[in-house]
Every structure is written in C-alpha cells, then in structure tokens.
Amino acid sequence: MSPKVIYGQALMKRIGRAAIDSRVSRPLEWRTVTKEQENNRLVQKYGRDLGFSLFGAADITRVREEFLLSEPLKTRFDRAIALGKRLSDAVLEDIKAQPTPLYFHHYRQLNFFLDRGALLLADHIQDLGFEALPIPASQIVDWENQRAHVSHKKIGVLAGLGWIGRNNLLVNPGLGSRFRLVTILTDMPLETGPSLDFSCGNCRACISPCPAQAIHENPADFDHRVCYEKLDEFRRKHIVSQHICGVCVKACRGPKA
Ligand code: B12
Ligand code: SF4
Ligand code: SF4
Asked: How remote is the CA of residue 194 from the centroid of ligand 3, in Å?
C-alpha cells in the first residue's frame, strides 16, 4: 500500500477545485497556481517519493526567536517544512504497559529515516536554489530544560498537521499520534498553514493506559515530571536504553477511534 500523504490544506483545496472546475469546462484555474503553490507541490512530491506520510509548511517569522540556534541561523529562514512518518501498527500493538525491544529498534530506525529523509529533501531544496536546514529528529541541546533546537510539535501545529492532544503529543486526524516528526527550515517561498481547528473532543483513550498517570482531562495539565520519571525507571531497569515509552503513542488513533 502506498504511504498515506496529507497534502498542505490550501493547495489541496485549490487542486480539488481545479479538478472539479475542469469537469465543468473551467480548466483555466490551473494557470493561477502561484510560485509558492508550485514549490509546495515540488517539495511534497519529493517528500512523498522518499516515503514521508505527512507534509505541511509553516510561517515561522513570529516564533523563530525562541529557536535554540545561533542568531544568524534564527533570522535566515522564514518558512519551516513539517514532515511526519507513521509508525508500524504491528510494533505498537505489541506494546502493553511498557516499551518493548521491538519498539526501541523501530524508534531508532524511524529517527534514522527522518534524519536521512530531511537531509535528502534539504539537499533537493538547495539544488532548486534555496537554503535549507534539516533539524535533527531527536537531539536535545538544552539538557536542563530538555529542549531541542526547534520543537517539531509546534512546527507541526503551525503547519496544520494536527493539534496538541491530551497526551501532549501532536495528533493528526488520520494517524492519531502514531507518527514521528522532523523539520526543515528554509527560505523557499511556500504556501503555509492554516492551523487545524480540531481537538480531542470526547476521546479519552490515552488517559488510563499511561503507566505514570501523566495524562489528564485538560491537555495543559499534562505532567511532564511523572512522565519523565517513568521513562527514567524503564531505562534504569534496562527495559530499554533510552527515555522512550510508546504507550500514549499506541493509545492515540485520533478522536474518531
Ligand atoms: C526532549 C524531548 C522529550 C522529553 C520531554 C521534555 C519536554 N519537556 O518536552 C522526554 C524524554 C520526557 C520525551 C518523552 C517523549 N517523547 Co519526546 N521529544 C523531545 C524532543 C527531543 C525535544 C522537545 C522539546 O524541545 N521540548 C520543549 C518544549 C518547549 O516544546 P514541546 O514540548 O515540543 O512543545 C510544546 C510547546 O511548543 C507548546 N506548543 C505546541 N504547539 C504550539 C503552538 C503555539 C502557537 C504555541 C504558542 C505553543 C505550542 O505545547 C507543546 C506541548 O507541550 C522532541 C523532538 C523535537 N525536536 O521537537 C521529541 C518529541 C516531542 N518526542 C516524541 C515522542 C513520541 C516522545 C515519547 C512518546 C517517547 C517515545 N518516543 O516513546 C514521550 C512522550 C511524552 C509525552 N506524552 O509528551 C515525538 C512526538 C511525536 C508526536 N506525534 O507528537 C518528538 C517530536 C520526536 C520526533 N522526532 O517525533 N521527549
Ligand atoms: S510516554 Fe509513557 S509515561 Fe509518558 S505520558 Fe506517554 S504513556 Fe505516560
Ligand atoms: S487518545 Fe484521544 S484524548 Fe488522547 S490525545 Fe489522542 S485523540 Fe486526544
């Protein structure tokens, strides 16, 4: 089965309308595609061919000041590309109340995939004449506050890939939280957002499975401290050798499940 790709919302609307218009003899809509939309199309196609499952573009001019990057790098880029790769359902279904060796391997392979995919796509963007900086999939640069250069979840929200769920993860309407993320910063003109107007609604599927009881009714009440303690316990007990878990990833198939 080919990977599920969710295209940038606005471009899809435009393409959808153009396709419908062509059936009623109004195909000229295609000629109004802007430079930004054409760039989105090129980058999405390349990302899809690489195997990415999700694609979105975000305007970062109002958030880039908080990135943990050098000053020149912070101001060089005004767009971010959010890319997601879904996880294997079989690996996730095998998780009960703690991470498994299979999940640990899968986690590492996905990080490898995301970093390599972002590298290749950034190189492609550079070939097209623009600058592009791939952000590591999972690298902490401020250990005290556990922060990376750029928050992939935040870029994902701004790019319209999903919302922050009760489980504190990015939730996509099609994949739930069963995907991992990577970001590319660029100066390539791209059509961006808008953010999705969705929420968890009445779903509470992730609350009771969490072994740390870190997940609550209100997403803002997510308890980072007890979550981290549980992940550290898994690592100290040599269940896995990194701070991972996977239970809340498995639990979330999105609000319709
Ligand atoms: C450090 C880290 C951790 C730390 C947590 C530290 C922390 N306080 O965030 C630990 C080790 C505990 C951890 C645990 C896990 N992590 Co982690 N982690 C990271 C990492 C490397 C950096 C996160 C960071 O910089 N946080 C700093 C805070 C400020 O940002 P944030 O939490 O990302 O986002 C918050 C704000 O930006 C804000 N926000 C979001 N959108 C918006 C929009 C606007 C407009 C505004 C104003 C604010 C806002 O709300 C967000 C949620 O609180 C990221 C990779 C990355 N570069 O993003 C992965 C990442 C967040 N982790 C991920 C995952 C999956 C996990 C685990 C499930 C472990 C596992 N793999 O099994 C658990 C889940 C715990 C949970 N339920 O939240 C995924 C999330 C994928 C997804 N679908 O959301 C990421 C993105 C890695 C990846 N490449 O996919 N993680
Ligand atoms: S990573 Fe594990 S402990 Fe942390 S919130 Fe998710 S299910 Fe709970
Ligand atoms: S499992 Fe349900 S409540 Fe939890 S984050 Fe996903 S959609 Fe939201």
From this structure: 21
- Indicate whether residue 107 lines ligand 1 (CB < 6 A): yes
Mean pLDDT of 179-207: 95
CA of 246 to the centre of ligand 2 (A): 7
Measured distance CA(255)–CA(173) in Å, rounded: 8
Residues β-bridged to residue 92: none
Residue 11 pLDDT exceeds 80:
no
In the reported structure, the alpha carbon of residue 243 is separated from the centroid of ligand 1 by a whole-number distance in angstroms of 12
Name the closest-CA residue to atom 1, ligand 2.
245
- For residue 57, which phi and psi values (nearest 5 degrees)? -125, 140
CA of 70 to the centre of ligand 3 (A): 36
Quickly count: other Cβ atoms within 10 Å of residue 111's Cβ: 17
Q: DSSP for 210-236, please give it.
A: -TT----SSGGG--HHHHHHHHHHHHH
- Preceding omega of 189 cis (within 30 degrees of 0): no
Q: Is the pTM of this model over 0.70?
A: yes
The CA distance from 158 to 163, in Å, is 9
CATH number belonging to the domain at 9-94+106-200, selected among 3.30.1490, 1.10.3470, 3.40.109, 1.20.1640: 3.40.109
63 vs 104: CA distance, rounded Å: 32
Is the model more confident about 193 or about 13? Answer: 193
Which residue intervals of the chain are DSSP H helices? Answer: 9-23, 35-50, 71-76, 89-93, 101-127, 152-158, 224-236, 247-251
Q: Which ligand is nearest to the CA of 162?
A: 1
Is 42 exposed, middle or buried (CB count within 10 Å of its CB: 0-12, 13-18, 19+)?
A: middle
